[in-house]
Amino acid sequence: MNANETLIELPSDLCPQKMPHHVAVIMDGNGRWAKRRGLPRIVGHQRGVDTLKELLRCCDDWGIKVLTAYAFSTENWGRPSHEVEFLLTLFERVLRRELAEMMRKNVRIRFLGDLKALPPSLQAEIAHAMEETRNNQGIQFNVATNYGSRQEIVQACKQIALKVKRGEIDVEDIDEQLFENHLYTQGISPPDLLIRTSGEMRLSNFLLWQMAYSEIYVTPTLWPDFDREEFHRALLSYQQRERRFGRIKEDD
Ligand code: IPE
Ligand code: IPE
Ligand code: MG
After folding, report:
1. Does the residue 227 lie in any domain?
2. Confidence band of 4 (pLDDT split at 50, 70, 90)
3. Active site residue 76
4. I need a labelling partner for 159 at 20 to 30 A (CA). Which of 58, 130, 197, 228 fits?
5. Helix (H) and strand (E) counts in the chain
6. How far is C-alpha 159 from the geometric centre of its chain's CA atoms?
7. For the chain, how many structural domains are there in total?
8. Which of the following is catalytic: 4, 13, 50, 76?
9. Which-ligand-closest: CA of 207?
10. Residue 204 sits in which domain range?
């Protein structure tokens, strides 16, 4: 979307000036969604993809510039191998299938995480999608895949330590900005709003550094049922928050 286009169907109770720039989502509850219907967990993951597609479309329509979705954590390798394999194959298939649509919608896709540990065929698909969409000017869509905040922070420390060791930087040069430049999210402003579905009140190793001041919204709705109305509710809640960043209101 460009600045001259009007926002499509932005609900009238949402203030266009107070929309979050960056929304992050922990897409949780696929397994429970399927289980409640007597279906295998993987069906929940399949439905979850549709939810994500719809959310991306909605963010684009409503003028949100960055969407980051947690697709696979460094801890998710601990699930049964058939589920892990299903998920990794699903990502590959969806990426291949959706690339043309992402190009049409001007989406710039980026993957966050330790991508080298992913199957080579998925890595190739990821590299292709990032390269193809690199110059797109529309919504930035980040997919955290084999992502874990602790791993991200440790690899940043290692990169920085190596630069100090080689004499490329001094210890005194290390500040928050330099540190951020070594995270997977380099160049991406921190999330303004985090949404977690399925009612769990935890971060599960997601963007720990980046979410120091994000507003958190948790809904009991399971991810496959998360729709525009739910997103609308999350945004309404966000717009009622007072983001103080440790300060106090001027008239207090
Ligand atoms: C989230 O749904 C998707 C991934 C973690 C890949 P879950 O698979 O965690 O679903 P629940 O939490 O077991 O219901
Ligand atoms: C978080 O969900 C990871 C993703 C959504 C990819 P989990 O289902 O893995 O988190 P826990 O185990 O409930 O903390
Ligand atoms: Mg879960």
Report:
1. yes
2. very low
3. yes
4. 130
5. 7, 6
6. 24
7. 1
8. 76
9. 2
10. 20-149+190-238
CA of 214 to the centre of ligand 2 (A): 19
The answer to whether residue 174 sits within a structural domain is no
Does 163 fall in a domain? no
Residue 147 in contact with ligand 2 by CB distance below 6 A: no
- Which domain CATH number covers 97? 3.40.1180.10
- Is residue 232 situated within a structural domain? yes
The pLDDT score that the predictor gives to residue 153 is: 98
d(CA 247, CA 17): 22
Of 28, 41, 140, 135, nearest to 82 by C-alpha is 41
Whether 87 lines ligand 1, by a CB cut-off of 6 Å, is: yes
Surrounding residues of ion ligand 3, Cβ less than 5 A:
28
Ligand 2 centroid from CA 230, angstroms: 20
Ligand 2 test: best mutation among 51, 70, 74, 76, most atoms within 8 Å of CB? 76
Pure H helices in the chain: 30-36, 41-61, 81-104, 120-133, 149-165, 176-180, 228-240
Distance from the alpha carbon of residue 155 to the mean position of ligand 2, in angstroms: 21
Q: What is the pLDDT of residues 137-191, one digit of tens each?
A: 999 999 999 999 999 999 999 999 999 999 999 999 999 999 999 999 999 999 9
